[in-house]
Amino acid sequence: MSETIFFYIFAVISVGMVLLMIFQTNPIVSALYLVFGFFGVAGLYVLLSAPFVAVLQVLVYAGAIMVLFLFVLMLLNLRKEDLVYDRLNWRKIGVGGVAILFLGFLAHHFTRIQIQPFFDLPENFGTPEGVGRLLFTTYLIPFELVSILLLVAIIGAVVLGKRQ
After folding, report:
1. Is residue 43 exposed (0-12), middle (13-18) or buried (19+ Cβ within 10 Å)?
2. 135 pLDDT exceeds 90?
3. pLDDT on residue 36
4. pTM over 0.90
5. What letter would DSSP give residue 65?
6. Residue 35: C-alpha distances to residues 12, 69, 116, 120, 157 (Å)
7. 65: number of Cβ within 10 Å
8. How is the chain split among helix, strand and coil, in percent rounded to 5?
9. Cα 89 to chain center, whole Å?
10. How many CB atoms are closer than 10 A to CB 66?
């Protein structure tokens, strides 16, 4: 029962922070909301008995990728007058209220469903060995394509930064 409560807590943190990130107009604050969303997803990985994947989530996404995002934001050279500070208005309150009602409906609906246990996990699920074996056998081509994409993004950021 406590796993269900923690699941709902981490799910609400993840979804809530990502929604706040989407509706935020200040890019720096938006990036910070995304970091908190990444921590919520890491908590979900811990509940799935994959602590190594949770640590990778925090180190890679909340660490390295967010540093890359903030680096790009700093390259944009935003002035204080360029940033729009967000104020609470009736539209945002309405969207939040509808979201809360929708989440309440989902919670009520899913508590009445008969929960079936997951299938048995492999012995090395979520361990460094299991993740490495999957990355370099089954998902080798997507892994390499993502690394090339990140390299192109870094080179593009450096070229754009050196134009001046």
Report:
1. buried
2. no
3. 92
4. no
5. I
6. 14, 11, 32, 32, 21
7. 15
8. 75, 0, 25
9. 26
10. 16
CA distance 54 to 40: 10
Query: Which percentage of the chain shows pLDDT scores above 70?
Result: 84
Query: Environment class of residue 53 by beta-carbon count within 10 Å: exposed (0-12), middle (13-18) or buried (19+)?
Result: buried
Cα distances (Å, whole numbers) of residue 8 to 11, 43, 69, 78, 111:
5, 11, 28, 37, 12
Contact 3, 47 (CB under 8 A): yes
Please state, in angstroms and rounded to a whole number, the distance separating the CA atoms of residues 153 and 145.
12
Provide the sign of the torsion angle of the four alpha carbons 38, 43, 49, 55, taken in this order: positive
- Give 68-101 pLDDT, tens digit per residue: 777 777 777 666 665 666 666 778 778 878 888 8
Q: Is 103 exposed, middle or buried (0-12, 13-18, 19+ CB in 10 A)?
A: middle
How do residues 22-64 score in pLDDT, each as one tens digit? 888 777 788 889 889 999 999 999 998 888 888 988 888 888 8
Q: What amino acid occupies position 91? A: R
Residues shown for the chain = 164
Q: Identify the pLDDT of residue 128.
A: 85
